[in-house]
UniProtKB/TrEMBL annotation:
This is Copper homeostasis protein cutC homolog. It comes from the Bacteria. Belongs to the CutC family. InterPro entries: CutC-like, CutC-like_dom_sf. One of its GO terms (molecular function) is copper ion binding. Pfam families: CutC (PF03932).
Amino acid sequence: MSKRAVLEVIALDVEDAVAAQTGGADRLELVTDMAADGLTPPVAVFAGIRAAVDLSLRVMLRRSEGFAAGAAEEVDSLVRVVGELRAAGADEFVLGFLDAEGGVDLAAVERVVAELDGCRWTFHRALDHAGDRDALRKQLDGLPGLDTYLTAGSATGVDTGLPTLLAEAARHGEQGYEQQLLVGGGLRLDHVPVLRAGGIDAFHIGGAARPNGWAGPVSAGAVGEWRRAVDDEHDEQDT
């Protein structure tokens, strides 16, 4: 029997979190400032959401737009924030840093991961902007806590990344490919059947959960539609 797919929803605040849980989300990615593609939320926002829902919460670790870790003092600042979040109860995270050549900034990633003390974490869509996806995966192989890659298969989204997603899913279990593929970035409901048939069992939505765009809140109804879609594919594969 195939397992229930993971549905992760981006949440900016308590209202988003409660609606996502009501709609059937399994996990939330907590961010602020989607105009900058999602930055680290204030500790108080994390604490409020943690008190409001009982879902898994993955907290974004990024201080500025883009995929560069920044100067040493910026990494120091991020490490301090990790300590504050951990003290507030955060135990799952999202991060990913590239260097100027499009390779993984391994030093910055390792520095931050050391502060997570074994917590589970996702390497986010920096993967889609890397010069060599396979090399990046091999370099990160064995880092403690890394259990997920958030990816659209392409910097331009799932439409163009679909062949890459299916090819990487087929390599699951190989060195550098043990982690779960969490698909997000231009993801639509009509992608779900093909992705599920290819063995992908985790889906990430942001704008798709917000009928009124990023200026409006998460809709429990929209999340429920996604929940039914991924569950329908699960049920069909079990018959």
